[in-house]
Amino acid sequence: MPEASPPPGGRQGRGAFGLADLLSLARIPLAAAFVAIPDGKVRLVILAVAGFTDLADGWLARWRGGSRLGGLLDPVADKIFIAAAFFVVLMSGELTWWEIALVLLRDILATLAFLVAVATRRPRAIPARAGGKAVTLLQLGTLLAFLTGSPYLQHLAWAAAAVGLYAIYDYARAIPTGTRPVGG
């Protein structure tokens, strides 16, 4: 799921907790439910709801202006949901641990980069980019393939990994010029 983007004009909006933040926050209990509920059909619904909340919170944040908290909460909730969902895939044995690590590499590196930035007191955010959005779609497609028993599961995982490598390269190129303070 993509990182939060500021509304047109590049400014985060109101400082108060809003509907977009509530939608982002909803992905955290959805992540727990995805792990806890073994029924594949229910997991499909959970995946659909999580995808909807990600689209809707981004749209609301751009339309109404996001909060400072939302600039942090959205990517954290995204990563928690994706990590929990791929934990389920790992436990199923449908993909190997290293295939899942490759699918999640962009998210792992983004998390590490953010932690380093916080530790050095220089937290920055990079607005969502096309490569990151493509990785997110392929990750969701991989989860959908897993839940439906598709023979394309491994192909989608490898596609997500390949696009993830491109996204890492693209984000690295954007760091010198495309960053802004987290929530700013």
Features:
mainly alpha; Four Helix Bundle (Hemerythrin (Met), subunit A); two-stranded antiparallel ribbon; 7 helices; 2 strands; disordered N terminus
CATH class: Mainly Alpha
**Annotated CATH architecture:** Up-down Bundle
**Largest sheet data:** 2 strands, antiparallel
Strand content: under 5%
Query: Based on CA inertia axes, which overall geometry fits?
Result: globular
* Domain unit count: 1
Q: How large, in whole angstroms, is the Cα Rg?
A: 16 Å
**What is the overall number of helices?**
7
Order of helices and strands: HHHHHEHHE
What kind of oligomer do you see?
Answer: single chain
Biggest sheet, spatial arrangement of strands: 1-2
Catalogue the unreliable spans: 1-12
Task: Give the strand tally.
Answer: 2
Ends distance: 20 Å
The overall average pLDDT, rounded, is 86
Helix content class: over 70%
Structural class, from secondary structure content? mainly alpha
- According to CATH, the fold-level topology is Four Helix Bundle (Hemerythrin (Met), subunit A)
